[in-house]
Design a protein that fits this description.
Strands 1, 2, 3, 4, 5, 6, 7, 8, 9 and 10 form a ten-stranded mixed sheet that branches. This protein starts with 6 loop residues before the first helix and ends with a helix. 54% of the residues are buried. With 362 residues, the chain is an alpha/beta fold. The longest helix is centred in the last third of the chain and has 20 residues. It has 16 helices and ten strands. It is 37% helix and 18% strand. The protein is globular. α2 links the parallel β1 and β2.
């Protein structure tokens, strides 16, 4: 990202905190009986977005009213969910990804539930398949994006790889997110660790720092304020033509433009990508476990999976789910992204972030 920080989707759809009406019961389970509330509360990062008609259909079929609480960037949202796990804000948490998954699982954030339809989800996304504490919902690629106009105006070839970013011609052009507070920032750090190895990534970041990389707290600030290529960045007079975002950011720039351009104004440095998988789970002390289970079933239903790409600009994990043409035309998934085993992330993440903070921010 779900993309996640991919807040342009949330801003454009205008969801914020939403409560939608419900009636009837069928399909995903019923809100009647068992002493459960008829409201199911989803806790998520700021980039959650869904079509109102799709949520309304779930509400009508299940009998539950959906309430959404947004808690900042994915890293911030996960940390807050852990701190409040004994008395959680909601029933389901959406937006923990593979970079932070072990932190959530080790802290007992979720209770097991095998969602209906999980057999239709690709096994490569099921990173907790033995215990089913989380359900994979989407995937995407964290990559450096570039402002096409800037590079054309300066007659400069855009960077294509991690190696390119430390070259002198790209000095003072890149903005990234803080790896300790932001999911895409952490994903970018892990991408460099996957590329250069345990001992090589610190030297790479020393070079990146010397080449003028700018670090901000989260994706919203980086993409919509600092980056010169986004619609928000143009309004904010952002002056960084390189930003850590997602491979699906260019289609978002097309979809939300009025009028729509024939080509995306931004591009992707495909040699800088790290594969991100997002999950949802039933919170351990959820007040409405029955409703939470119904909502998890809904998240991997074809209806939601096919609605999701143009709302959160991520790819569906359900096999055969249709992907919009805007994705294939303007933002195809990376063909060979960097990846890292969850066990390796778990073993190294906290120390790497600590070392990164000392190296880059001090």
């Amino acid at each position: 990202m779900s993309i996640t920080g991919k807040q342009w989707a949330a801003v454009a759809v205008g969801l914020g905190m939403v409560t939608l009406s419900a009636c009837g019961s069928s399909g995903f389970g019923s809100g009647n009986g068992g002493g459960d509330s008829k409201t199911v509360t989803l806790v998520s990062h700021d980039s959650w977005a869904a079509s109102k008609s799709v949520i309304a259909a779930f509400e009508k079929e299940s009998g539950y009213t959906v309430k959404v609480l947004k808690d900042g960037d994915a890293g911030q949202a996960v940390n807050k969910a852990i701190l409040t796990k004994d008395n959680p804000q909601g029933d389901v948490f959406f937006g923990v990804d593979n970079t932070l998954l072990s932190r959530a699982l080790d802290n007992g954030l979720f209770q097991p539930y095998e969602a209906k339809g999980l057999d239709q989800v690709g096994t490569q996304y099921q990173l907790d398949a033995d215990k089913h504490r989380v359900t994979p919902i989407d995937y995407g690629d964290i990559c450096v994006n570039y402002d096409k106009k800037y590079f054309a105006d300066h007659k400069l070839t855009p960077p294509a790889s991690f190696d390119d970013l430390v070259k002198p011609e790209y000095k003072n052009l890149l903005v990234t997110e803080n790896a300790s507070t932001s999911s895409p920032g952490l994903g970018f750090l892990l991408g460099t660790a996957a590329k250069y190895g345990d001992g090589g990534w610190p030297d790479y970041w020393k070079k990146l720092k010397a080449n003028g990389v700018k670090v901000v707290d989260g994706w919203e600030q980086a993409y919509n304020e600092e980056f010169s290529g986004s619609a928000g960045g143009k309004k904010a007079k952002g002056d960084r033509p390189l930003v850590v975002s997602y491979a699906s950011s260019p289609p978002a720039e097309v979809v939300y433009a009025d009028p729509r351009p024939k080509t995306a104004p931004t591009g992707v440095a495909t040699g800088t990508c790290f594969r991100q998988i997002e999950f949802a789970g039933l919170l351990s002390n959820a007040h409405n476990t029955k409703g939470g289970k119904a909502f998890l079933d809904f998240l991997i239903s074809r209806r939601f999976q096919e609605d999701m790409p143009l709302n959160m600009f991520v790819y569906p994990v359900v096999e055969g789910a249709k992907v919009p043409t805007e994705f294939t035309e303007y933002g195809p998934a990376a063909k060979d992204p960097e990846t890292m085993a969850p066990t390796k992330i778990a073993a190294n993440r906290d120390q790497w972030v600590k070392s990164w903070t000392s190296l880059v921010l001090k």
